[in-house]
Design goal:
The structure is a homodimer. The first copy, chain A, has helices at about 5-25, 35-45, 50-60, 65-85, 105-110, 110-130, 135-155, 160-170, 175-200, 205-235, 235-240, 245-250, 255-260, 260-280, 285-295; strands spanning about 95-100, 100. With about 300 residues, the first copy, chain A, is mainly alpha-helical. Chain A has one domain (about 5-295): Orthogonal Bundle (Farnesyl Diphosphate Synthase). Chain A is globular and about 55 Å long. Chain A starts with a helix and ends with a helix. The interface between A and B is large, with 55 and 55 residues.
């Protein structure tokens, strides 16, 4: 898969996802209007949609149907967006800018922003519980298993726990081990759940799931390392969010702990691990390989 | 079922629920400790556990097994607690007192309180996605259907939407219709989902589900009417939360719109509807009838 094929493959899946996200939410005029406007403002703000694309790519890598994976793809993007809305709140990271636009609470106020996050988290799991009455037993089992993977990744051992650790470690010296643990929870768990959940929905064998778990673990960690690198090397305009904020908040990062060069070396190692893990999938794994490269080579 | 039998029946189920809630959460020493302490502080703070008891009572009314309904019972109490934590935040109702103790953000700070709510909402749906591998197809189907009922009740057409409306109607004159709509969303939807979800897990027939839906709808609304009555007739010490706060916040209530006497009359009518709906369940419906009476006759 060359660069232009990869671009086209990603674009095709992104279009599917945008349409499915739009369908999965009530319209802006649904009652009560404020909350639906606030939810749509953040969820339909564009973005790279890396997480839902990972879900689809992973299901496809094991020969699954895109349609079976689409509800999980929507759910992970809803959950990612809820976590951004809540993390940006004044009581948390107090951020004004996200994806190049004012953050949710800057536009709708704190109360509605908290509720918009709550609504997205709720809708994500609600969506996963909806199946046609004639769905096969196998589809039910896979859906529940994928939902359990997502639930685990978003709880206190994952997304929420990572954010707590992040808040608690601000301005403190933390060890390299603690930093890895923090990021495996805060960023890695959800990315990994995208890959594993997509694989389960696609009908992965135990061996395929094990390989994709390794892939997910590697890209989950490298995603954060690259984020830390970009925070010091790119401008706010390029990132679409405040740059240099980790330095300002005295947050421990891979760059502050290991230096820029070693952080880059770690990212290259993890990329290799991710690529190795998907070799046996051949052409079907090409999209996953392309996404791993994109994560490491991105500029924002 | 006389008063002492009812008390014993409720106590027995409450004990089951307390133990199940405790088991459903990581211990206080699980990493990261802060969030688990915060979650346990609010979830295990006692309370009447009306929602989870309703789940069990409804499953039992249609001849279902308590064990099959217990995960939903835990989930609804987690969701109720998350909504209290978020509603009490300074950006929302700004409350200092809940169940006779300082609110979550007063003890753990706003950031952790927001995350504790997020963690409880996540854990509720995670719990519902967990089933033994050898669970029957029928159990899977019922579990997914009950989860979908809960998801609907907690979203922008229910719990979240009701809270948005509540915030938006503060200090404004709203119609009796708008007030009913608000409370059917904010309080009624979750209570109704307890009854309907429990019924589905218990294997209700279409006719049984229709009757229990009527019961759930009546108690969902009467619960709020009684809350409004208690806000003006009881003291803070009895309520375990700030009294008279609706009047102070200039919130429209059943009492402010209809007067105390008419509000009491509406409560009595709804209680009759609830009791009528469960008559055909005979002895099996006695617990549901008892709970309806308790909701209307409670002092806090």
């Amino acid at each position: 898969m060359d660069a232009s094929q990869l671009r086209a493959a990603l674009e095709e899946r992104r279009r599917l996802i945008e349409a499915a996200l739009d369908r999965a939410l009530p319209g802006e005029s649904a009652w009560p209007e404020t909350i639906h406007r606030a939810v749509r403002y953040s969820l339909l703000a564009g973005g790279k949609r890396i997480r839902p694309v990972l879900v689809l790519a992973s299901a496809e890598a094991v020969g699954g149907a895109t349609d079976d994976a689409l509800p999980l793809a929507c759910a992970v993007e809803m959950i990612h967006t809820y976590s951004l809305i809540h993390d940006d709140l004044p009581a948390m990271d107090d951020d004004d800018l996200r994806r190049g636009r004012p953050t949710n609470h800057k536009v709708y106020g704190e109360a509605v922003a908290i509720l918009a996050g709550d609504a997205l988290l709720t809708r994500a799991f609600h969506l996963l519980a909806q199946l046609p009455e004639d769905a096969s037993e196998e589809r039910l089992r896979r859906r529940l298993a994928a939902t359990a993977i997502l639930g685990e990744a978003c709880g206190t051992a994952g997304l929420v726990g990572g954010q707590v650790m992040d808040l608690e470690s601000e301005g403190k010296a933390i060890s390299a081990d603690a930093l890895e643990r923090l990021h495996r929870a805060k960023t890695g768990a959800l990315l990994s759940a995208c890959v594993r959940g997509g694989a389960v929905l696609g009908g992965a064998t135990a061996e395929q799931l094990e390989r994709l778990t390794r892939y997910g673990s590697a890209i989950g960690l490298v995603f954060q390392i690259v984020d830390d690198i970009l925070d010091v090397t790119e401008s706010a305009a390029q990132l679409g969010k405040t740059a240099g904020k980790d330095v300002k908040a005295q947050k421990a990062t891979y760059v502050s702990l290991h230096g820029l060069e070693r952080a880059r070396g770690m990212a290259a190692d993890l990329l290799r691990q991710a690529l190795d893990a998907v070799v046996p999938f051949g052409e079907r794994g090409a999209l996953l390989a392309g996404i791993a490269r994109l994560i490491v080579e991105r500029k924002a």
